UniProtKB/TrEMBL annotation, chains A, B:
Pfam family, any one: PadR
The protein's name: PadR family transcriptional regulator
Domain Transcription regulator PadR N-terminal, chain residue ranges per copy: 8-78
Domain of life: Bacteria
Length: 178, 178
DNA sequence: TTGCATCTGTATCGAACTGATATATATTGG
DNA sequence: CCAATATATATCAGTTCGATACAGATGCAA
């Protein structure tokens, strides 16, 4: 599933401009999927060419025309087709964990700082989700929201419980270096 | 931190060929970071140009020469510099979760199947980590290995506990459609 | 023993995607 | 009153993926 397909999915929820689709990615899919203008606008052009979405232009004074996209019947079929297929594996990349892989090359204080920051970052993300969760309505959205909270909390708990493994490791190495 | 930098990091653990670096990504960084030949080989060329790694060629009979890369002193400094910087945010993309976002468009049976498969996939990943964890030695590696297990287990637990929210939702929608 | 899969090793290419940047104006809040 | 944020379009260079190509070695099962 590429961004083109997911734009189609967002349009099943109602007509939107490219700008609004970007916002939807940020507001409701932040946990799950990311997309930049550099992929959204070309995607919408291609979808239009292929007849999977239609586009009406709303001329505005002293601004670029607003282009409102709607999904077509054939677009809807194609989207259902796409989500019926087995989803590809998650893609995950964490610089934080990559750095920890080389913790022995850093001073112990740096490791502690890094973990402290990670914990407060995850806590912040949970707080954001808490706020969003209230206003969200469907069980489906609550499910995804709580999914995120659960995973973030599991990470915080793990870091708190086992950080000493890294911190003592680094400490020993730096002592050995003396 | 890009793949170029992480290749440098892998070379701090010992000399290696491009092929071996790829294997290291698969064997020891699978949880954390991914890289394909299409990024590794160009990265090594660029690192060589910049004098951050050196390369000696080992000619082999009826095979392309084996190129063994070593990190240089300046490469080592540059790598430490890179990991001292604040790590960028994780990048995460999950087609599985994206599909769940549109669960209301799928039959309830499909949702159940999807979740069943996800649970066994995560269980498999935990089993793989269990096996690897034994043979790994340093506290640092154990830390990362158990990190992965913990997160995967949290996901399984969550899915088991709350899948009914999605399954009943889908059921209601399909009844409503009748 | 033959044949098939997997391993070792190099490398490139098109397509996908990111992140920054450009261009304009309106609105909101401190 | 000014700065930040929001609305709205779009492109571009650089990064990365996934597939593919080539080619012999090695292992293993029928």
């Amino acid at each position: 599933m590429d961004i083109r397909t997911l734009c189609l999915g967002i349009l099943t929820m109602g007509d939107a401009t490219g700008y609004e689709i970007k916002k939807t990615f940020e507001d409701r899919l932040d946990l799950i999927f990311h997309a930049s203008y550099g992929s959204i606008y070309p995607a919408l052009n291609k979808l239009t060419e292929e007849g999977l979405v239609s586009c009406r232009e709303l001329s505005q004074v002293k601004r670029p025309d607003k282009k409102i996209y709607s999904i077509t019947a054939s677009g809807r079929y194609q989207f259902i087709d796409a989500i019926m297929k087995r989803p590809a594996a998650d893609r995950f990349r964490s610089e934080f964990l990559a750095v920890l892989m080389f913790a022995h090359l850093l001073p112990a204080s740096k490791i502690s700082e890094l973990i402290d920051e990670r914990i407060s970052d995850r806590a912040q993300k949970i707080e954001n989700l808490d706020n969003e969760c209230d206003s969200k309505l469907t069980d489906r959205e609550k499910f995804l929201c709580n999914f995120g909270r659960t995973i973030y909390q599991a990470e915080i708990d793990y870091l708190k419980d086992y950080r000493h493994l890294l911190e003592s490791d680094a400490l020993m190495d730096s002592r050995a270096a003396d």
